[in-house]
């Protein structure tokens, strides 16, 4: 389980540390934080829920830009982030933090898959912070509107974290004789 202290450290790092780069042309070996601004919509479907009917998140649809406003990628269902260089990651939420504003929550996501080579190579965590808007409507979803779709504008900062380099040697790989000995070889 993710500890609150680690969560706060990651959030502080993502929102206070200078970005390693904000360009989609970041070399794959760059370490640290890449910070992109996301602006788009949260797409909701009106569906039956345990309490009647409610707006349920279908997916985000947002353009990602660097600090200079240059398009760096796209954020979509998965959740997936795809850089303009073709590299992409899919994340899974491991922690949700209420937004300090009336907006969608801040998230800590762990990268669960990578595709392509480029700016998003080696990213292990994604933080969604500094959210504005995006909250599902409180009303307007009913049996009569089941299947309806609505979009809600939102903005967020996405920080892509990579582990720092270490000078420690890689762990030794077991030799075939070590792995083939089975239970009696211990």
UniProtKB/TrEMBL annotation:
<feature type="compositionally biased region" description="Low complexity">
    <location>
        <begin position="166"/>
        <end position="186"/>
    </location>
</feature>
<dbReference type="InterPro" id="IPR021851">
    <property type="entry name" value="DUF3455"/>
</dbReference>
<feature type="region of interest" description="Disordered">
    <location>
        <begin position="161"/>
        <end position="186"/>
    </location>
</feature>
<dbReference type="Pfam" id="PF11937">
    <property type="entry name" value="DUF3455"/>
</dbReference>
<feature type="signal peptide">
    <location>
        <begin position="1"/>
        <end position="19"/>
    </location>
</feature>
<protein>
    <recommendedName>
        <fullName>DUF3455 domain-containing protein</fullName>
    </recommendedName>
</protein>
<keyword id="KW-0732">Signal</keyword>
